[in-house]
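Changelog entry

Holo records now carry the ligand SMILES as an explicit input line rather than a separate metadata file. Below, a converted record for adenosine-5'-triphosphate, shown in the new format.
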Amino acid sequence: MLKVEGLTTHYGSSQVLFGIDLEFGTGQVATLLGRNGMGKTTTIHSICGIVRPSGGSIVFDGEELVGKPSFRIANLGIGLVPEGRQIFPNLTLWENLVATASNHLGLPDPWTVEKVFDLFPELAERRSSMGNLLSGGEQQMLAIGRALMTNPKLLILDEATEGLAPLVRRRIWEALSRIRGENLSILVVDKNLSDLLRIADVNFIVERGRVVWRGTSDELRADREALHRYLGV
Ligand SMILES: Nc1ncnc2c1ncn2[C@@H]1O[C@H](COP(=O)(O)OP(=O)(O)OP(=O)(O)O)[C@@H](O)[C@H]1O
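Structure line, unchanged by the conversion:
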């Protein structure tokens, strides 16, 4: 499904990624872990074509993504829930959901507004509210719903539950557990390790622009040295 090999990315003359390698399969949930500033967001932005990698390869469902513009990558089936949500502030919740809706891959049983409301019933009550009047939790649910409305095969979440109350965080994790599966893989960054490990099939720890550890959640829970050394726990 996604195979990243030797990915390097620079901002101007400053190199941030030094050869990221990661791979996971259809229907899997993968995490990117690591301390602040280690390159997780840059990895995600490189996959999505928001920043242009300087080297390496990103193959998604058999297609090379490096060099493709971000709209084409989105059309190939990658949906991004960006850090900070980036809800359209002057559109209603409903308009936010339909504004970028598409089914470029012609997936059967595509996402609809009603299906998003079934996943997050709290959004249905707020359908006419402007984006900027929604709470942080509602905005994050909407950002997930908006990404799902593009009918991705890979959903990428950067800081999935940052700044949200515990109850809302739980709703987000429940929703992600519910939608993962045969047709949808998930790549997620979050600071909440225990929640992440519960949902993940495979975890990648990024340290100074390289993947320094990979393994299942059980393997990571058992590797106290890696937890301490790379994640400070
Ligand atoms: N637009 C940019 N221009 C220059 N340097 C940047 C830019 N964005 C990020 N960086 C730098 O690249 C490095 C990696 O940042 P990145 O945001 O990818 O890390 P991260 O692991 O996602 O951290 P965080 O959890 O803090 O978002 C950091 O040193 C950061 O300062």
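Spot-checked after migration. The mean pLDDT is 96. Residues 123 and 170 are 16 Å apart (CA to CA).
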